[in-house]
Each structure stands twice: as structure tokens, then as C-alpha cells.
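Feature request, filed as a ticket because there's no other form

It would be nice if the structure record came with a short human-readable summary line next to the C-alpha cells. Right now we just get the raw output. Example of a typical job, pasted below so the devs can see what we mean:
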Amino acid sequence: MSWDAIFGAANMMALIAWACLILLPRWPALLSAILYLGVALLSMLYAGILLSLLAGWADPGGSMEGGNFNSIEGVQALFSAKGGLTLGWVHYLAFDLFVGLWIARDADAKGFSRIVQAPILLATFLAGPLGLFAWLLVREPRARASGRWS
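Raw output as currently delivered:
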């Protein structure tokens, strides 16, 4: 399978999970499906890509020579190959979906309407940390008032 196909499949999986999280009723089975068919599958895909690249089983689709996490140039080298870029993108998709799922569950538990949740979840989908920060600001007064910080 090509890096383009893996990238596209991961994107589609994440997009479907996000659409379900934002638009559909939050049945327990749906939340479990998003966790296990969304977050867990993306995480397994990430692990498979990482293992394949580290073991040399997959062609990285470019040179990752000089790649490291010690400098911006090193990270740029890692992401200059299609395999490295796909690995980084799947990492982003999995973590942001997990954060979105946490936000949705937390918002439901604290009684926030879906109208309040939707733009925050959309912001999390499009710009992960921005959506998380928005949620932390919105939830704080209600969490403090209820005495429930978790």
C-alpha cells in the first residue's frame, strides 16, 4: 500500500469519527466505537508505520537522513519523506480524536449543550490545542462550581 493510500485512509477514518462525534447522538456504543475503531485503530496504524520504518520493512518514500527531534532541521528531515510525514499525521489524528472524545464526554457529564460543544469540537478537529484550550476555558467555571475537576 502506498503512503498516499495510508494517509488518505487515516484521514477518512478520522473524518468519519469526528463527524459521528459532533453530529450523532452520544450512545455508549457510538462512543466506544469512536474510541476503539477510531483512536485505537489510528494508534495501531501509527505503531505499524513506526515499526515498519524503524525495521526497514517499508520504503520511507524519501530521505530521512539527519532526522532527529533535536532541531527544527532534524524534524524537517523526518517529515521530508512520505513515510515520516504520514507517521506524524497519524499521530496528530489519533491524539486529537482522543482529546475530542474526552471533551465530548466531559461536556456531556457537565451538562453542556451540543450547541456549545460543536464549535469547540470543530476547533479541536481543525486546530487541536486551540480547541482543547477553548474547552478548558469554557468548562472551568462549571467544574469549579460543581466541585468536579475530573
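Something like this underneath would help us a lot:
Residues 27 and 58 are 39 Å apart (CA to CA).
The chain has one domain: 3-144.
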